[in-house]
Design brief:
Elements lengths: L4 E8 L2 E6 L19 E10 L4 E9 L9
Antiparallel strand pairs: 1-2, 1-3, 3-4
Length: 71
């Protein structure tokens, strides 16, 4: 690849959700269906390059309530 990136792996709470290998390296993750409102989940993106090196970044996201259910 021109930029040296081989793939990006997206995970939630350590469970792999998506492997991105296309040039934009975007991915989709789904929150656990049993995640209660107010729960904190960790979303991680880990990048691997063509030389075998890797790096990752993790954020914590608080699960909110569906706004369609609010009055």
């Amino acid at each position: 690849e021109g930029n040296g990136i081989k793939e990006v792996v997206y995970s939630i709470d350590g469970v792999v959700q998506y492997h991105a290998t296309d040039d934009n390296y975007s991915g989709t993750v789904r929150f656990p269906s049993n995640a209660e409102p107010g729960a904190i989940v960790e979303v991680t993106a880990k990048v691997y390059d063509i030389y075998g090196y890797s790096g990752s970044s993790t954020i914590q996201v608080r699960v909110g309530e569906d706004s369609a259910e609010e009055n």
